[in-house]
Amino acid sequence: MSQSIDEVDEQRDDIVGRLAWFLTGAMIGATVAILYAPKSGKDTRKYISDRAQQGKQAVSDTSKDILDSSKEMFERGRKLVDEAADLFDRARKMVKG
Q: Structural domain of residue 56, as residue ranges?
């Protein structure tokens, strides 16, 4: 059975919330890593650069997942609207006789 608009909104909110928590965790992790870095400046910069690249890739992957989910939710919403319009037309035809 099709999902309701509320369920689709809840899924979207959940995805956005997860992304926000991920980004927050990434920033906290990077800050802690800088503060407690036991290596030289050159090594620390290399480490930060590598971790930033990994974070960038993770954000990119998550963004793609969100985009795919958004497209899927949009299509589900479109299908719900089409089904509702079809039901409305059938009901109108039944009323007219």
A: 5-96
Gap between the Cα atoms of 8 and 73, Å rounded: 6
Per-residue pLDDT of the chain (97 residues; tens, 9 = 90+): 456 777 777 787 788 788 888 888 888 888 887 777 676 778 878 887 888 888 888 888 888 888 888 888 888 888 888 888 888 888 888 888 7
What is the total count of domains within the chain?
1
pTM for the model stands at: 0.42
